[in-house]
């Protein structure tokens, strides 16, 4: 118990010392170049707050969803060694059918079109 308290004390002390030193050490000398929104040397041509298309986020979420689906279905070949391999196959098929129906719905609604 004494060793755990000692290690905890050393860790907390070291963390506090490093946090305090990181605030004291850097030199804060802001000039006009550092305070400008672009450090590449070009003047801004337009607003930096242009909205993104919601279609970009939709395609990105669909990509993540199907990537996650592959990761979930990866251990499926080992599922035939369970007591009820038919149940495993039915659940995996249900997931695939549900995702396929969702993809078909998005496709028919035009959610995957880049240009309108």
Automatic annotation (TrEMBL):
The chain crosses the membrane at residues 7-25, 52-74, 86-105. Its EC number is 7.1.1.2. This is NADH-ubiquinone oxidoreductase chain 3. Core subunit of the mitochondrial membrane respiratory chain NADH dehydrogenase (Complex I) which catalyzes electron transfer from NADH through the respiratory chain, using ubiquinone as an electron acceptor. Essential for the catalytic activity of complex I. The keyword NAD applies. PANTHER family: NADH-UBIQUINONE OXIDOREDUCTASE CHAIN 3. GO terms for cellular component: mitochondrial membrane; NADH dehydrogenase complex. It holds the Pfam family Oxidored_q4. One of its GO terms (molecular function) is NADH dehydrogenase (ubiquinone) activity. Keywords: Electron transport, Membrane, Mitochondrion, NAD, Respiratory chain, Translocase, Transmembrane, Transmembrane helix, Transport, Ubiquinone. It is found in: Mitochondrion membrane. The keyword Transmembrane applies. It comes from Cobitis choii (Choi's spiny loach). It is an enzyme of class 7 (translocase). Belongs to the complex I subunit 3 family. Its main location: mitochondrion. It catalyses: a ubiquinone + NADH + 5 H(+)(in) = a ubiquinol + NAD(+) + 4 H(+)(out).
